[in-house]
Amino acid sequence: MTVLTDQFTEELISIDLHLRKAVYGLRNPAASIAAYHFGWEDADGELTEANSGKALRPLLTLLAAKTVAEEWRAALPAAVAVELVHNFSLVHDDVIDRDEFRRHRPTVWKVFGANDAILVGDALHALAFETIAEADDAHAAAAARLLSRTVRTLIEGQFADIRFEGRTSIDLAECIAMSENKTASLMGCATALGALYGGGSQAHVDALWDFGFRLGTAFQHIDDLLGIWGDPEATGKSVYSDLRSRKKSLPVTAALRSGDPRAEELARLYHSDAPLDDAALDRAAELVEACGGRRYCRESAEALVEEAVASLRVRGLDAAAVADLGELAASTVSRVR
Amino acid sequence: MTVLTDQFTEELISIDLHLRKAVYGLRNPAASIAAYHFGWEDADGELTEANSGKALRPLLTLLAAKTVAEEWRAALPAAVAVELVHNFSLVHDDVIDRDEFRRHRPTVWKVFGANDAILVGDALHALAFETIAEADDAHAAAAARLLSRTVRTLIEGQFADIRFEGRTSIDLAECIAMSENKTASLMGCATALGALYGGGSQAHVDALWDFGFRLGTAFQHIDDLLGIWGDPEATGKSVYSDLRSRKKSLPVTAALRSGDPRAEELARLYHSDAPLDDAALDRAAELVEACGGRRYCRESAEALVEEAVASLRVRGLDAAAVADLGELAASTVSRVR
């Protein structure tokens, strides 16, 4: 991501400035709690320069706009709205999952309490719609429609995620659908909104939605790999984080459903009540890999990125902008190489 | 309210049908949890006929539409959206306040857990915007703008409410501003949206907003009176409910700020750490009344209802519809007589 971040400096700065303007338009305490979440301020309200996240989704919106229009700035309200929805869902998800750290910093509920986190999430959610509605152009109704359906889908994914925790057996299809709902739908929305605000045709909007949705699915698959084999320095999570919490992520589900005889040992480890010690974690990771879960997940992600790029083979898109999106897509998968 | 409910049967049935259609359009588990919240189903998903609430806000939307148009059905999406926002905020507020009962039934978080309650609230919030955006008419952008600003205001009110709990001294102005943000803004939004969808002019929309906002402020004042002197059978709360929880509601704040020497005894009761026993609760209620808090609150509500009705003295509104709104407003205050 670093290369691309350097490449799109102008777009990323625009996103950052517009996002700050929108969030600081909230009244306190909502503004300062949100500013903490975004890494702009510490818990005492002092400006800081923490990691604000990758801004991948709003960048996708602007790059998508560039496939249909030279001027990408018209898509800034949509880019900001998408990033607000993403962050509203992060703040609420952290409450729900009781996650204590995000981007190497204590989560909002951990610092300000769950009540404030619920309210700030609600404020960012409403602010997303306000940002689109205030832009007051011809796209507001279509954008609100797309965004509200996307939030509904996000929530379906989050409900599925919660329900999976209480179940011992998950189908591969259910697991993929959950990733699509939780992650891919918002990335599809991000790119579709870019095409919409860029003035693209319905065919363009649909093509960009397909691109974003497939890329988003690939992105979640890669995240699932990083949840097991990611570098704790980079991910901010512990080694084998997802195995430790017995998360039914794609590599694990694929391994459990592989039909490989070693899957039974993995199932026993996953379904026992005892906390997994280091040896058990090593063994679980080994078994996921031996049963083909790691390879399945990586190959699926690679295939999805190819499909994503193929979605953009429609008439009338700008070749340079399409190439940028292809490069961004490729860099997403290369995170695990 | 009963008389009015009988009077507007057709409108109330329309609201109910459209609201059910929207909510049942959510996927499970969100749909069935929301259906439980609305009193349509019990916790096992069996249809039931519990008290769904008064549907006051969506009724206000439709009656407001009737002041500018014969056909009120065009305003149904707005009425549904307003009711969805109201209920999203109730579900989240119950989590935040740890309230265990609403409309004489266990609250959503109490039955399904806080995580499901957060997610269902989010789903209802998004569904409100979806309902407006899907209606796809000329008013979608303006309605989304008004609704999103209103949610932001609602959240400001809820933040203030939380912050008040940790403070010993509240100004009367702060207390009133909190009621305006938490309650009046959504009622102003409800009536303004009715005028907007009815095709009213900006002057009509503004007048209806004023009406709803003032009525909403009065409504909250009356609720504050009922929180102390309400009949537990009717309110579903314990006797002296707000005193028991030492809530800084308007009658209490007005009494504490009255300058009456007896306010000091009330302050001592309110600021002590010991739970208030029955004798202390009786005494606190007596002191609020002796210091003029009860009268101040009732008189403010009556004045606000008069101002609300006066807001409707603009050219071009339908006299019969204005009379209906006036009657509804009067019935709100008569709850405490």
Overview of the molecule:
- Two copies of one chain form a homodimer.
- Chain A has 337 residues and is an all-alpha fold.
- Chain A has a single domain, classed as Farnesyl Diphosphate Synthase.
- Helix content of chain A is 72%, strand content 1%.
- Chain A is built from 17 helices and two strands.
- Chain A has helices spanning 2-7, 9-24, 30-37, 56-68, 76-97, 108-112, 114-135, 140-165, 172-197, 202-229, 232-235, 241-244, 250-256, 263-271, 278-290, 293-311, 319-333, and strands at 101-102, 105-106.
- In chain A, strands 1-2 form a two-stranded antiparallel ribbon.
- The model of chain A has no long low-confidence stretch (mean pLDDT 93).
- The A-B interface holds A 26-27, 29-30, 88, 92, 95-96, 114-116, 118-119, 121-123, 125-127, 129-130, 132-134, 136, 140-142, 144-145, 147-149, 151-152, 155-156, 158-159, 162-163 and B 26-27, 29-30, 88, 92, 95-96, 114-116, 118-119, 121-123, 125-127, 129-130, 132-134, 136, 140-142, 144-145, 147-149, 151-152, 155-156, 158-159, 162-163.
- Chains A, B: InterPro entries: Isoprenoid_synthase_dom_sf, Polyprenyl_synt, Polyprenyl_synt_CS.
- Chains A, B: Belongs to the FPP/GGPP synthase family.
